[in-house]
Amino acid sequence: MIGFIDKSKGLLFSSIPLDNSLHHTMETMRQEIEKLDSNRFLNTAQEDLKDYLVEKYSVTPVTLLREQWYIEHQEVQVDVRHDEHRWISDRNRPVMIPGERTEVHVPFDGEPDLFYARPNRFTMNPPQALIIKNEIVLRYDSPADHPRDIRPLVDTVLSEIEQHLEWQRGMINTHNITLPSEAEQCIRQRHGRLLAQSQRIDSLGIPVRRRNDAPTTYAVPTVRRKAVPTLPPATTAQFKPEPVWELESYEAALKIMQDMALVMERSPAAFKSMDEETLRQHFLVQLNGQFEGNATGETFNMEGKTDILLREGDRNVFIVECKFWKGPKAFGAAVDQLLGYSTWRDGKSAILVFNRGTDTSTVLTGIDNTVKSHDNFKRVVNWPHESGFRYILHSNGDVNREIILTVLVFHVPT
To answer: How far is CA 124 from its chain centroid?
Structure first.
């Protein structure tokens, strides 16, 4: 984050403006996005790439671990030629007498280079100390015949350091809060540009030759100060745009299915004895009424059959499983079944859980624990719903082929 600095003098918070350093860090992140091989970039899940960049370019503020401090003491020869209380005939030469050296070590968490970055608020007389690895070292020499009371000095210096770190913390927090949205915006902008370029090239109808110097792998640049996050795995093979079912249509389909819950509540007698297949048909009728008959029931596809799906070409854009709640193990099997179907890169899916007689909290807890412990689980999506969840999973064998899974619980009359 910070370039060359002279650390030998021990002058803290004065080498480079922190806002310049944070701006440089943000600009370096933007440059990494632009320099990433285009196919490598397009074949990487955008959210995974954002997480990688946020981890890499976030800044960890310094926190002093005062409860872990300690001292080291040793006998040394002390130069007293500048001591005005002593008569010394020649002050141009060292005058060494027996003395002692006391070093106060204060461990800290955070990035050591921040001790040399000047926050927007600062004093004209900054504190001084040595920064050795992950410790602040305050060194005091005093003659044996006139030892110094160093505790007030230590308290003063540490107080000044804490003040500067607090001034830094506000600037760093702003940087870290802004980083995810900035990364997401830069990723989306380049993603849009590359897709537009790809479409223009495809429209020419002329085969594209891969450059001989095109990279086949991507080397992650070294980042100092903290462990280097790993760029999400992805291929550099030629990226091919795939059909995407718009999120708006996905939400509309889910809304149609959620409205069926109201129908069940208003006509409990009609649904009391229905099995999975009969309930599925009611949902299928409603979807076909809104999506021009593109939803089909009992459609066979590769490893098995699903309950409801929408297709585009030779793959699915929307898959729905309908299952009665029979416990976490059975629900986990439904998730495995769903992941066995071939989908496009941005797949959408749902599992409709019909619940008869089991406590709602038990069902919701079982669903959440089962999905989060699944090998294909990537992350939770913020989707507030009183009887449902939304997750991101990856398809079998490809972490960059993501599937949105929404789970909805329906209470079926008993």
So the answer is: 38
